[in-house]
Amino acid sequence: MIESIDKPFFEDYAVDMLLPSIDFGPMDRFDYIPIALILRDTNPLHLDRVYAQERGLNDVVQQGPLNQAYLYRYFTSLLHNPWDLVGTKMRFAANVFPEDTLRCGGEVLALEPIEGSGGVIICAVWQRNQKGEVILKGEASARIPSRP
Amino acid sequence: MTVDRAALIGRQLRAATYTVSQVDVDDFLGVVAEPDFAPLDDGEADSGRLAPPSFAPFVAVLGLLKTFDWQEDFLFDYRNGTAMFGEQAIEFHRPLVVGESVSIAAAISDVYEKQGKSRFDVIEVTFKIAGEHDEDLLMSGQQSYILFK
User: Fold this and answer.
1) Distance, in angstroms, between A16 CA and closest chain B CA?
2) Residues B49-69: pLDDT tens digits?
3) Cα separation, B149 vs B147, whole angstroms
4) In this structure, which topology does domain B6-148 adopt according to CATH?
5) Less Cβ around it within 10 Å: N or C end of chain B?
6) Which of A83, A102, A135 should we substitute to test contact with B (largest number of B Cβ atoms within 10 Å)?
7) pTM reported for the whole predicted model
8) Residue A138 lies in a domain
9) Given its phi and psi angles, is residue B50 left (phi above 0), alpha (psi -120 to 50 degrees) or beta?
């Protein structure tokens, strides 16, 4: 995890700059139980390996919002205040399975200075599994303060 | 039978509420560790405590699922059909507070057919999530649902 003293200020960012990547995992099938309870969704595709295998999958499928949560967790860890998050746009590209490792990363697409108070960064963000397959991709934007 | 969902465009979905409960947030934090948002010990007061932004997709998904009926509003048989989440866009207006109830308003903004390996309809839903009592906007955005034919 990036400590607060290492978090970049607005002046540290440049267009096309790659954001540091962070790995999460391996994913744990037992985490899908509390997530199913939170989502009030007991679809056996997320919980029953035999049910998933009968439908042509190797294992149960991790819930999509959990995949998103790891990408949010990644991007907001770069922010001085996690709630400086301005917006996100994400598209699901592939499923996540138990034991997968999720690598999250990104790249700065645009910088929008705000006079006297840093600015907003707009970034491409992505999440890939250990095989390099894209799980999630999209954009995220956030307010970043100026260097004091 | 082919279902024509184009007539659904503009349909206002039902109003719904969701409470950002401490139990849900703490269960979530037991899975996705967030150093800035640690779970509370039993009995510890949580007044004004914030949920992490990573919990926001759960609020959007849960809130929106309460605003529609698959069959009645999307003309879709959820028991026998296959549906997936499509693209989700969220604009954040203020932090989520643990314990607060939020209201969700949503409408079908677009419906279109696409062809991949198979044919499917995309239903785009525009939503606003606000504080239930003071109606200050928390999140707004769009969620699409993919309904395979």
Assistant:
1) 22
2) 899 999 999 999 999 999 999
3) 6
4) Thiol Ester Dehydrase; Chain A (3.10.129)
5) N
6) A83
7) 0.91
8) yes
9) beta
